[in-house]
Amino acid sequence: MTSDKGNKSYLIGIVMVAVLGGLLFGYDTAVISGAEKGLQAFFISSQDFVYTDFMHGFTSSSALIGCIIGSALSGWLASSLGRKRALMVAGLLFFVSALGSMSPEFLLFKHGVPSFSLLIAFNVYRVIGGIGVGLASAICPMYIGEVAPSEIRGMLVSWNQFAIIFGQLVVYFVNFLILGEHTNPIIEAIGQGVNAVSPDSDPWTIATGWRYMFGSEAVPAGLFTLLICFVPETPRYLVSIGHDGKALDILSRINGSSKARQILNDIKETITVKTERLFTYGYLCIFVGIMLSVFQQAVGINAVLYYAPRIFGDMGMTNPMVNTVVMGVVNILFTLVAVFTVEKLGRKPLLICGSIGMALGAFGVALTFGHQGMEMLTMLSIMVYSASFMFSWGPICWVLIAEIFPNTIRGAAVAIAVAFQWIFNFIVSSTFVPMFNMHITDGDDFGHWFTYALYGLICAVAAIFVWRLVPETKGKTLEDMSKLWGK
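Above: the chain sequence. Below: its structure as tokens.
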């Protein structure tokens, strides 16, 4: 039953279903961290081609190509199919990718026999999952932003980032449990970007372990696809296609009947024309949205998240997977800081404080990494760096992207901003290892300190960007965005 204040249980229910898309986003992007060594060893044993470091780097990040495609398509799909049905498409893509990545031989190849053709098939399935991630990354916060009341919109969209980090933590645990008493294979470099698998490697992780890790995603993917069938379409999309009655019914259930009519009138005033040109509200509007996405990735956080086990191994930690799980728990706790303070402190203060904290953490890693006796300082600096991201750029970037654009250009503008996010995600992820391993002279640590010093400098620039150009949107309705940028 709907009261005049709205049905909070109804709102929470549909938001929790939507954030499952965020959980899948985190799950899909982080599953590779536990599976990549087993996958590498499997394809190294191929007889018809040589599996090089370059091929493995591409295979480990091929999902990001799909993310770019999915985010670029998200605006068109969200506008043509609606937010709800576009999320259903994303769920199906997650499900197909999970099963296909687990068994890329399905119907076409002999099981367990690595080949170049099988490598292509595997990457195709990973790209399919990446398209699902790209769609979910743009449309989940858009969906939540369009159904949430303005006074709690920031908090609810922040739950999407919590779900992303929780999805990463879940898959760290799942990978840890799947590995069990088994060990990751031992990869030995033999020169010119070519590796060999040590005879002492555990054969189970090479033949089977990585398959279970990828296949485990089918469970949350299937649940998300099923549950999304039961949530409503967003009122703002319904108004844009002329279904005012349905929109009013949903608004009434969320906000109460008296407030619903006022919100509906505000929506109709800003959607008198279904679409407007992208730069109707000026170039700065689009530039700010794009740069928010660029900085979220250019600060280097995903290089840490994707390669965490390798980084902790290089630091001399005895059990890198345990350290990775600890980092995941810290990330969860600091994401909650954003969830419960974004409506009190505002978007800009959190972004600026987070940028400064990340800069300090990154510079700390640059100064201590590789120095004997300073391992704990390096670990602490990485935790400060990661935690500062989790209460700032992680969730708040998504909040701003979901709410900063006017209604009539939101679909296209969000798609462009998120596409830039995935492009820079790919750039950062693919350049981290070669930058980190750079040497000027034999045995020096130039790459170690240069990489994190560069990330620290970018964090400082990000703080200045937010201070000078990003508007505060706390407490403003989505309809207020047209007035804000119209000035």
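The two ends are 41 Å apart (CA to CA).
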